[in-house]
Specification:
The complex is a heterodimer of chains A (235) and B (314). Chain A has 235 residues and is α/β, with parallel strands linked by helices. Helix content of chain A is 37%, strand content 27%. Chain A has 2 domains: 150 residues, 3-Layer(aba) Sandwich (Rossmann fold); 63 residues, no CATH class. The termini of chain A are far apart. By secondary structure, chain B is an all-alpha fold. Helix content of chain B is 74%, strand content 3%. In chain B, the strands form 2 sheets. Chain B has a two-stranded antiparallel ribbon. In chain B, strands 2-3 form a two-stranded antiparallel sheet. Classes of the chains: A alpha/beta (235), B mainly alpha (314). Chains A and B meet through helix 2 and helix 3 of A and helix 8 and helix 9 of B.
Chain lengths: 235, 314
Amino acid sequence: MTLLSTRGLTKQYAGLHAVEDVDFDLPQGQVRALIGPNGAGKTTFVGMLCGRIAPTRGTVIFDGKDISTLPAHKRIALGMAYTFQITSVFANLGVAENVALAARRRLQGAAVQDAVADALAQVGLGDRIDQTAGDLSYGHQRLLEIAMGLVQKPRLLILDEPTQGLAESEVAAFKTLIRALSDTTTILLIEHNMSVVMETADVITVLNFGRVLAEGAPSDIHADAAVQAAYLGTG
Amino acid sequence: MSDTAKTAFLHGGLLALLFALQFVLPAYHHGNLARIMVLASFAIGFNVMFGYTGLLSLGHALFFAAGMYGMGLSVQILGFSPAPALIAGLIAGLVVAALVGALALRTVGVAFMIVTLMFAQAGYLTVLYFGSYTRGDEGFVIQQAQRMLWGIDLSDPANRYFAAFALFAVCLLTTLALVRSPFGKVLIAIRENEDRARMLGYDVFKYKLAAVIVSGTISAAAGAAYGLLFGYVGATFASVQYSIFPLLWVLLGGAGTVLGPFIGTLFMFYLIDLSSGITTAYMLIAGVVLVLLTLFAPQGLAGELRKRVWRGLP
């Protein structure tokens, strides 16, 4: 079953095609990586999926329903969760409160605290629960972003460059986390770290100049000459 | 002591102190404190929007005046007794806040400040325009006979103090409950990072509109009570001055703290009162103190308390 698809999705900025006629299908339960060089339109594309950016034209269908005109908060309520590329936690609030804000949309009362503790433990921030979010290191703020996504128990989790700024050990833990989540959650992952992409993704979509350049299993993408030329390098 | 216990102790303690003070204060300060409690309720309303939701309104005199005229005109023209007149004031404030909120919230930042300022000026001019009913700048007096609430004479200082205290206690406890509730925490989240709150699935416009309505209605309650307790309704209370006062009080006391509005109002009231006893250039003294506070306690008095003593201060 297809959880999310787009048809002819396009975003123009003053004549520049940031994203052009993207047809995209994401089956339920898949881990999909979205890769491409800087400026390929990845963040613009997912921004249009979750409603942060209005498309110039095209449709977005989530769970069989056309959500092209829904505002962002309603799309999130349908079961999407989005983590920001540029860390965007509530810096002046506590770590627990950050996650609780994400949890309270579906939970109430004591259940919130349990869900918060679970989500923070999942990303390895269990011992930071009493800190202020802004006092965390950059890498830990990235993990907090992920916890805020997880606690929503989304049907589709969109992660925009989640491992940027993480230490090696944290990247390894992140891979394990994604593999564990993939049983229950559909994941769309924008990622530059090739080891993360190759080890976690079921299917990879490559964007270049706003268009889909290639799509396929990690091994196929790795072997694709056009992708190599555009992005992976020939070495 | 847990956070909840500390919060109850601190806010309950202030209310107990204010309740007890009425029996010991000399008449002059007794009257001042009654006035301060009503004005602090106005500041509490302002703080819901500015301190907790991050919406800077420069037009809160509109809500204060909506309550005051909603109450005053229904007494003066429709012959209402105080209880229904107070309710009329509350409804006037609620309706005006809902309308202004629905329109002004289409803008953000500086534009929002200007739009609220313009709405308040339109309100002020409306009061002047309908001078045959409102008596414009001159205003009108609400007679002692019209100020009997359930047989209690609100022009009597002891009753007036108690009524002001009751209003203040309700406003204080309402905001305390509000900011500790999930709803209030979403408002704080919007203040901290609106885009993030939206991307957690919260309908940001709806929450901001609710904040404007709560804020406007509390301010209107203060305006209605002020007119009734002190027996006068006039256009000065709709002027820009009364939009700036709550901003000053809240900034001085500590924006985004429950106690801040009261502390700021008390401080500013006595700052002007005491300095005017020393010199005719009392605004100079007030100005210097304000500059010093802005330099050395930019978070306001209660904000400094939060920073230095107790981070969990609501």
